Amino acid sequence: xxxxxxxxxLTLAAVLTLIPFVYMIAVSLAPTGALWSGALLPxxxxxxxxxxxxxxxxxxPLLRYMANGALVCGAILVLQVLIAAPAGYALAKLPFRGxxxxxxxxxxxxxIPIQVPAIPLYVGIAYAGLLNTYTALILPFxxxxxxxxxxxxxxxxxxxxxxxxxRLDGFSELGIVWRLMLPAAWPAVAAFATISVIAHWNDxxxxxxxxxDTNMMTPPMGLAAFRSSGESxxxxxxxxxxxxxxxxxxxxxxxxxxxHLIRGLSIGAR
Amino acid sequence: MVAxxxxxxxxxxxxTHNGEGxxxxxxxAPAAVLxxxxxxxxxxxxxxxxxxxxxxxxxxxxxVGLANYKAMLADPRVRNSFYNTALYVGTVAPxxxxxxxxxxxxxxxxxxxxxxxxxxxxxxxxxxLVAMATAxxxxxxxxxxxxxTVLSELGFARQRFLTDPxxxxxSLAAIGVWKLVGYNTLLFIxxxxxxxxDLYEAAxxxxxxGGWGRFALVTWPLLAPVTLFxxxxxxxxxxxxxxxxAVLTHGGPNGATDMMLYTLFExxxxxxxxxLASAIAVTFLGFVGALSILxxxxxxxxxxxx
Amino acid sequence: MAALDDVSLDVxxxxxxxxxxxxxxxxxxxxxxxxxxxxxxxxxxxxxxRDVRHLSPSAxxxxxxxxxxxxxxxxxxxxxxxxxxxxxxxxxxxxxRFLGRLVPGASRRRASIAERVARIAGQLQIEGLLDRRPDQxxxxxxQRVALGRALIREPKLFLLDEPLAxxxxxxxxxxxxxxxxxxxxxGATTLFVTHDQAExxxxxxxxxIMFDGKLRQIGTPDQLYRHPADLDVARFLxxxxxxxxxxxxxxxALAGGLGGGMAATRDAxxxxxxxxxxxxxxxxxxxxxxxxxxxxxxxxxxxxHAGADANLFVRLPSDxxxxxxxxxxxxxxxxxxxxxxxxxxxxxxxxxxPLQDASAxxxxxxxxxxx
Lengths: 270, 306, 371
Prior knowledge:
Radius of gyration of chain C: 26 Å
Oligomer: heterotrimer
Helix content of chain C: 25-40%
Largest interface: A-B, 103 and 103 residues
Largest sheet of chain B: none
Strand order of the largest sheet of chain C: 4-5-6-1-7-8
Strand content of chain C: 15-25%
Shape of chain C: elongated
Number of strands of chain C: 16
Radius of gyration of chain B: 26 Å
Order of helices and strands of chain C: EHEEEHHHHEHEHEEHHEHHEEEEEEE
Strand content of chain B: under 5%
Order of helices and strands of chain B: HHHHHHHHHHHH
Structural class of chain B: mainly alpha
Number of helices of chain C: 11
Largest sheet of chain C: 6 strands, mixed
């Protein structure tokens, strides 16, 4: 009895959660007129679907935005790992002068959201003439305190004997990081990659600060611009088509890798 | 076997130790330098700016003490924005935490489809909020939106969800809850999976068999650290709401949905009132930083009670 | 979880029965089934004369002590001890910290619970620990609190699932004795699961021994020790070593004139193919060839010092079967590896078992085979 009630409630909640997705897809496939029919979901037609997606791709350079997003997210992720993994290893396994101080700095850095240093960063980037560049989109995020912290926590559990053995076998310290520690910490890497890509693909704040050039926009910023451009006001179908296109990569990726991603994202809670 | 001279054996640990120290500094240096240049320096910069009358392009500036903060607290826009933020956070955080816990408990009690439910509730977390906000906007459209269609079918009046000043903030709060619940559910499920099964068995022998007894005796107290963690990150996320305001309402109608980060963004990068914006940024850091201390404390202390 | 197959066990009131067997034999499953933590597909579980099979765990009036103790980590010892009473005797509203005062009779029940907690704490000598949390206690102290939580309800049946396994060796022995004395004093019918046969021998009225989900034998410790029902039981109760010699090897040795009258009474049985002769190291003796006693010719393999005693490992030349002989440790130096010797054992203390399966396992006794 109570289990049936629970299942009923869960099903209702699941339906409510899914409605925006279903509605977005349905509208993206339907002619604008169908929205006024009074039906709960507009009826899709092949012609309208083609029209909406074509409009979304031609009214604004949506593919360009997505390429920008992929490039920025990829560069941020690679640089974050390149910088955070050795630092995490040093904090976990190599006693050096200033290590407690650096660890304290990482903890403090965890507490500072990007909006706080944004104004001076903007000033600096503007003075350097880097507004409207990929550098401006990538640079503030290349060092991730969360990444350093996460890698340190994972590396701490790695047995010291193996490190000593690796040193006797001729590994350099950097070689230990790339060839021993990172492969062993792949759940942490996967979790970190997930969190990083979701955060930076979906970010709107920072692109709005440093980008005004239409060609340099990221997907959310491009879609927001498309929405307010007036080109979409009479055509919700095209706007929804754009939404489907920029949401699809992460959602499809999530459905493919969800087991790993959920485990990774849960790491913070265990 | 290779014979190793005695001296070499003794020299080895020492050399390694020094080597480790140097290597440690080398490996940590890029992160340390970048943290300083990209985060700490500009964060201190914003603190300094909040105490000066600096403006973009000005060659010099004067220290004005707490004048920017006084101006901030007197500014009707900022006051309204902080008030809205408090309402938004005070609604979204408790609702999304309680709902997340409820969904987690119900999912754990399921025999089948646990993975399916988990995935469904998690979808909004991965989805691009800007895109989903536009989808919500169409759903909430006054004349043809799905929600209003349903309302009028049920005999209720249609609402201007995003343009009625009395309703707009609550519409954004609903979207916020929709966005945050899944992550909270996931964190609660992860936390519940670490509760030892024999505690539930002991509870069932001790007489706590009903759902409520089990919950009160075992689940809730053992979940307390996770609940604290979920509460802090939910508060931080709710405080940081920006996308829905920036995309759907621009703080309107008539300031009804103006919130802290949106005000900060506009004052800094639209009106270039750097002193005021810096003061808001520092205030924002005060809220979020205080919450983060709780969060980081949890990170570092993963084992509880035992 | 191991499956149970046709287990039938009858326990008298006040009796202390141990359930032993190798890991995975189903002993914990049996205990958990009785408690109601596992579902039973068929059969009956009678406590007193009430069939509890369809009752919930708490309605069965059993108490369970977990190997991990399963104390509620957020509650003090006092609250842990009181938990079973509070959950059963007070309504959900009465349990609430502040609202509880409004419920009629709640304060009287609270007082009665506090009194019983104090009494049980006195019995277990944990009065000084009552306001601590489990994480502030040692393993032995936690174990007492877990026992107290089980005792406080005055259950009809006491179920203990390896409650001593997480204690260190010294503490295990003293706790074992205390547990036994406590059970005698309280008189609670007790089922005690352990994988340690010495523990079971030391404190049980009767022992039930299980293999592969089946009950093989049940009896007093002495019955099981002297008259094991089969080779598995004999092995399990003869740790670390049991000597097992294929009967045909012994028969051939005897026919060769080596054994003479040593096992004459069993000579006929020895000729049956497919049986084995088993005896314990302490029932065997070793002799020099010049002693001119009758015995099996063996070769010394090695000796292990074990304090007062020593274990001497020998090998039968005919098929390489290894045996172990208990000797005084002072005699070790007299038995150099490779030397020839004569092995004798007490036929009255030896058993003949049919070979349960024809696997090679028997030809090389378990422990000696590890040489």
